[in-house]
Amino acid sequence: MNRERSFNILRTATAMLAAILVAFIIIILISDQPVQSILIFLLQPFSSGRYIGNIAETAIPLIFSGLSMAVLFQAGLFNLGGEGVYFMAGIAGSIAAIWLKLPIFIFPLLCLAVGAGTGILVMLVPGVLRAKFNANEMVTSLMMNNICYGVGCYILNNMMRDPTVSTLVSYKYRSAALLPTIIKGTRVHAGILAAILCAVLVYIFLYKTKWGLQVRATGANSKFAKYSGMSVTKVIILVHVIAGAIAGCGGIVECLGLHKRFEWTALPGYGFDGAMIAMLANNNPLGVIGAAAFVAYLRVGADLVNRFADVPTEMISILQTLIILLISAEKFLHKYKQKWIEKDIYIGEVQNEGVH
After folding, report:
1. Does the pLDDT value for residue 260 go beyond 60?
2. Does 351 have pLDDT greater than 60?
3. CA 16 to CA 60: how far, in whole Å?
4. Where are its TM segments located (predicted)?
């Protein structure tokens, strides 16, 4: 298993490297100054504290989304409902941030709790349908995204809309509800601490608890888990509750950390990003942090090369798609995986013969 885990890390690194090489090729083909553009793309994100802060702030919602999807993937479920969860959790948490009045230390925590609770309610719909009626969770979660978007837009337009502003935005949040900036000169807010803490807690849950073992066993082989006495139905519902709470926190953290009012008029896209982040991290909660940072780095680099050179930001969509294709392709480097594992088995047999 250690050998296979090492290979998966190598395979992921190869996919990342391939994506960066494709970025180089795109830049060379379309840029008038390819060398300068490549240097901007690679190095400028680390050229100042503000740009490094941009990477960190971009990574925060990706961490929450990646953790949510990693938990689902560990259970063998493919639920794409994070999009709707982010939007509805942002709406519900924003209602609390606008109309409630609480002390500064309690207010953000309550808003996060509202966001997490909303996420649980949204995720429970496809979760219960899968657990009780064996409905395909991918289909039902995609339908839930549309429902959440429609309901959220109705609430925003009819209950929260600020009539003094020409665009479709909510009233301003109370200042006590906002997440504080923790690094001066950047927009990096306290949400990054919550994201890291969440990653640690999810890791402990998955790898250090009985329920985590049942989640991983269900994902590996649900029939074996069932015959072993595990309640697969309870596991499916539990996983959806946890994933919904994580994504719900991510939605309201993004709103309270970077905005002063609810500003989304479309699904934010973080739910779909979570699948890519989880794949990059091989569903490891701690690996999600690094995967989110890598994707954030690519996005900041693409934005900078668009502003300071002549390369469009659409390049990042190509890179993300390529990463997903390579990570999800079972045959990618498959023959090398077989040789890698067979070599490990051979070494183990030789060592055992030497002992005897």
Report:
1. yes
2. no
3. 20
4. 12-31, 51-72, 84-100, 106-129, 188-206, 235-258, 270-295, 315-333
Judge if pTM exceeds 0.85. Answer: yes
C-beta of residue 280 within 8 angstroms of C-beta of residue 18: no
pLDDT of residue 39: 93
**Contact present, 206 and 71 (Cβ < 8 Å):** yes
Quote the pLDDT of residue 2. Answer: 64
The Cα 19–Cα 291 span in angstroms is: 13
Amino acid at 246: I
- Helices 270-280 and 82-99 meet at what angle, rounded to 10? 120
Which 8-state DSSP code applies to residue 174? P
What is the CATH architecture assignment of 2-7+40-341? Orthogonal Bundle (1.10)
Question: At which residue do the structure tokens 């888990």 appear?
Answer: 225
- Picking from 63, 55, 78, 67, the residue whose alpha carbon sits closest to that of residue 142 is 78
Residue 24: count of CB within 10 angstroms of its CB: 14
Q: Please, are residues 67 and 275 in contact by the beta-carbon 8 Å criterion?
A: no
